[in-house]
Model the fold of this input.
Amino acid sequence: MPSLKDLKNRIASVKATQKITKAMKMVAAAKLRRAQEAAEAARPYSQRMAAVLANIAQAVGADDAAPRLMTGTGRNDTHLLIVCTAERGLCGGFNSQIARHARDHVRKLLAEGKTVKIICVGKKGFDILRREFASLIIDRVDLREVRKIGFENADRIGHKVIELFERGEFDVCTLFYSEFKSVISQIPTAQQLIPASAGPVAAETESNSAIYEYEPDAAAILSDLIPRNISVQIFRALLENVAGEMGAKMSAMDNATRNAGEMINKLTLNYNRQRQAQITKELIEIISGAEAL
Amino acid sequence: MADSFNFELVSPERLLLSAQVTEVVIPATEGEMTVMANHAPTMTTVKPGVVTVKMADGKSERFAVFGGFADILPTGCTLLAESAVHVDELDPSVLENRIAVVRAELEGAGDEKKTRLEQFIAELTKLGEIVIPA
Done:
């Protein structure tokens, strides 16, 4: 049975923890709003990009002129996985969800006898995947120093990926990130980057496929466009990730704050009960002492 | 008065401008082009340079863009810029940084790439001359 003093200390420490989690929740909420705004601001670009890309892809068709980034190498042996996670923990299952999704994928590919290479973006995903697939990780990108993710960060990763592709280091590239559905729901998603899959988008934009003039020719534009599109997709994934991370952190910290509140209530009840018991005990001692006289 | 059409300038980070305009001058890779309403559908890549926009209300705005491409339809025009800033907000040091980065890349680049990069530097320098009053 803890003494009154122990209980008091315990309550004080839980209260301090609660204050911290509450502050973290507040910070996450503020960051979430900014991240959401950034993600929304970036949306028009990627949407238009997809529309334009589908349009040109249609014009070029399955021509030989289509760049290899679009058609792929024709093989399906080596897979590159870009796993985007957060830099910091304390955001519930956010990081482990993405990592699990990626891990299942890796296991499946390995079982099929394919070669797998991994690029980790973000520290947490690296920490988790390192345990099992340390030998498969060829690179990691640290965004810890980056306060606000700019297009340059994504562009750098994009260039790296394209460089690897041109050296023939992989055939298929898949991007893993968490899609931001709402504050409480983030869905780990896998998206194929190379060869580019413009299938569903093409159908949507078919209606406004005007006859374009291309300047320079369509193939040249396409070969300029696709590398850019890869950077844009990575950029979008990073932004969605930041929003998702903040959402997950907010709800995780909200839960923690609530749990701390419950714990404080329980401990306080316990404390009061013991205090009362002690008073009663002392009174009984005094009364029985007086009666004995 | 000339017909107006909808012009959108979008960078990966945000939508910079979406407005009714009468005239847009785009630095396309094959030479500058002026887009007005009812332009034939065209798609073109854009080199670094200044985009001049004439608004429907007669005001004129200038933006510095660093590459990208434009999607022109009779009803509107979308310019997807790799990076874009309003000319008034352009920081000369940013431009210099960019040039320095490309210069560094120039070292040890292949012949074909070298010509491309040199062209890129020339374009950036020209952009700097236009934008920054001497």
Remarks:
- The helical segments of chain A are 4-60, 68-71, 94-111, 123-133, 151-166, 199-204, 218-292.
